[in-house]
Amino acid sequence: MNRGEFLRQAGAVMAVLAGLPAARAQKYPGGPIRLIVPFPPGGGTDILARIVTQAITESRGWTFVIDNKPGAGGTLGIDQLVRAAPDGLTFGVGQTANLAVAPSLYTKLPYQPAVNLAPVAAIATQPNVLVVRAESPYKSFAEFISAARSAKSSLTLGSPGTGTIGHLAGEMLARRAGFKILHVPYKGTGPALTDAISGQLDFVLTTPPGVMALLKAGKLRALAVTSTRRLAALPSVPTVAESGFEGFVAEDWKALVAPAGTPAPMLATLNEAMNEALQNKALAAKLEAEGSAAMGGTGAELAALMKSEIDRWGEAVRVSGAKAE
């Protein structure tokens, strides 16, 4: 082999080797993506996670494995997420409770959202719906408030966990309206709603996805929503604000987050896939039908949202006096 031929073949080999990293990058994720959902199956967070990952699967062909890790208002699942390897194959769905409320609520929170998590993208925002069992004597929100004020004992409030928006919204409403509640925390929405249906709870405040099917089945009755405007999915249900409590708003947002240290290109790829899914009209309509509003945006915008919400809900925690170990 002459020198020219040797150099030509060597150059070809080097070109192939140089192209290998790019080829590997194009194949990302190269396997299933584990998505930690810090609440049980069937709740608002779980339903939303499955809707958006299905949309990404349909557009990108990726496989997601939903890993439900409920407990402690969603903080147990997020704690597991921050301990996961930052390899771009493990992500989680955080929300207002475990990303914004928890830093003020827990005396020994094992993670700091701004330090131990990498923000990927905001997913959607959801208000809470105040629901009672179908056989409840409360036919309207006004009747509910009137009865609560005159009750000799505390009304039992079920929520997906201490420090969740369902819990704090109930505390804020009780303080504003002048009645007493006994908060009963659960590991997720499903168990709380089961007890509400059986009459063991007076009311539950939770996000729409977890209750829509039960409302349609006639097992629960919706009395009010905590958004600024009525929901398209529940047009006959008034807002708390329009029912004598001007300015009352309590909305929950969900976001895609990753362990700190996850490579930036992988975060960017997931951000792109999430925004692509959320901009799909069919998905947006599906979210609206179950009471959510698509968000999206950059990781930096999510980081700014988390910071502002930590300040906002920190004040709500202090006013409510709620604390958790």
Strand-helix topology:
Elements: H1 3-26, E1 33-37, H2 44-60, E2 64-68, H3 75-83, E3 90-95, H4 96-105, H5 113-116, E4 117-127, E5 129-133, H6 141-150, E6 155-159, H7 165-177, E7 181-185, H8 189-197, E8 203-206, H9 212-216, E9 220-225, E10 251-259, H10 264-278, H11 281-289, E11 293-294, H12 299-320
Parallel strand pairs: 1-2, 1-3, 6-7, 6-8
Antiparallel strand pairs: 3-10, 4-10, 4-11, 5-8, 5-9
Written account of the structure:
The protein has a six-stranded mixed beta sheet with strand order 2-1-3-10-4-11. A five-stranded mixed beta sheet has the order 7-6-8-5-9, sandwiched between helices. The protein folds into two domains: 32-125 and 252-320, 3-Layer(aba) Sandwich (D-Maltodextrin-Binding Protein, domain 2), CATH 3.40.190.150; 129-243, D-Maltodextrin-Binding Protein, domain 2 (3-Layer(aba) Sandwich), CATH 3.40.190.10. The chain has 325 residues and is an alpha/beta fold. It has twelve helices and eleven strands. The radius of gyration is 23 Å and the shape is globular. α2 crosses α10 (264-278). Helices cover 45% and strands 19% of the residues. α2 links the parallel β1 (33-37) and β2 (64-68).
Task: Provide the descriptors you would attach to this structure in a database record.
single chain, D-Maltodextrin-Binding Protein, domain 2, alpha/beta, 325 residues, 12 helices, 19% strand, five-stranded mixed β-sheet, six-stranded mixed β-sheet, 2 domains
